[in-house]
Amino acid sequence: MDIMPSDLKTILHSKRANIYYLEKCRVQVNGGRVEYITNEGKDSCYWNIPIANTTAVMLGMGTSVTQAAMRELARAGVMVGFCGTDSTPLFAANEIEIPVSWLSPQSEYRPTQYLQQWVSFWFDDEKRLLAAKRFQQLRLQQIERQWLGCRMQRESSFQPDETRLRPLLNKAAEGMSEAGDHTVLMLKEAQLTKALYKLVSQTVGYGDFSRAKRGSGIDLANRFLDQGNYLAYGLAAVAAWVTGIPHGLAVMHGKTRRGGLVFDLADLIKDALVMPQAFLSAMQGEDAQAFRQACIATFQRSNALDFMIETLQQTASEIAGDRI
């Protein structure tokens, strides 16, 4: 039975279940299916990738992909990224530079409404600042909703001190709303993130913690934070592609950083979802695979991709005043 390209996109990206990180394997088409092949001794094992229900595929060390597989992944609207060990860092010769680079499906039939709304305000510094503040307020709401939610506290035993968290978020919200430019806003963001690291490390009993990225000898929590953040970047790249907004049109990370919109979108969920899981997994001594699976499950339960897409759509509409 022939499958038309349109049939592969019947599942909305925000409802797709799978993010794959693959290493030491070959991705190819076999009998009309996209599969990855691993070698176990003298035997080769074939594993199906349900591309119609997949948002992103991250290809790690020792992987290769055929032209036919890339064609099928593109037809299904799957974002593909080449990356290093344990999904960090990402690199690919594409529209965006390291560390966030994705090979995006080239479809000319994505919506234009959101892009037109976005560019109608993006060159106005004041309106772009308003959009950045909106992102940050939604980020704070997501932290409060997830960290104090019954499900997270029940299933993960992550129970931050509410009497410390709420004043911290309220102070950040007030400071961000009063920020007069992007520099001040990013300073407030950095102060918030530092305070959150301290709170979450104390909550799980991790001890002294200092954020470091991709250096030699960094502790397990730092490694998990890097890996979880790159998974969030994958969802962010999908959200931007779905809405048709180029990654360079950032509202928070400035005009000069290519791919900044991916960072902006990932920030919506990194603190709320990745940070607690990184420290919990580190305390439990989990390996990288178990941590990634826990992160992906958390993304799915919290509808993280839906949240990113809706944030882009609503921000485009509200800041532009519905002008298209």
What does it look like?
By secondary structure, the protein is α/β, with parallel strands linked by helices. Helix content is about 50%, strand content about 10%. The protein has helices at about 65-75, 115-120, 125-145, 150-155, 160-175, 180-205, 220-245, 260-285, 290-300, 305-320, and strands spanning about 20, 25-30, 35-40, 45-50, 55-60, 65, 80. It has a four-stranded mixed beta sheet with strand order 4-3-2-6. Strands 1-5-7 form a three-stranded parallel beta sheet, with helices on both faces. β3 and β4 form a beta hairpin. The radius of gyration is 20 Å and the shape is globular. The termini are far apart. The model is unreliable at about 90-100 (pLDDT under 50).
Strand and helix layout:
Elements: E1 18-22, E2 26-30, E3 33-40, E4 43-48, E5 54-59, E6 64-65, H1 67-75, E7 79-82, H2 113-122, H3 125-147, H4 150-156, H5 162-177, H6 182-204, H7 220-243, H8 260-284, H9 288-301, H10 304-320
Parallel strand pairs: 1-5, 2-6, 5-7
Antiparallel strand pairs: 2-3, 3-4
Structural class by helix and strand composition: alpha/beta
- Write out the strand line-up for the largest beta sheet, numbering strands in chain order: 4-3-2-6
Helix content, binned percent: 40-55%
Order of helices and strands: EEEEEEHEHHHHHHHHH
Distance between the amino and carboxyl termini: 41 Å
Number of helices: 10
Name the shape in a single word: globular
Strand % is 5-15%
Q: How many extended strands?
A: 7
Mind telling me the C-alpha Rg?
20 Å
Main β-sheet, in a few words?
4 strands, mixed
Low-confidence stretches: 90-100
Mean pLDDT level:
84
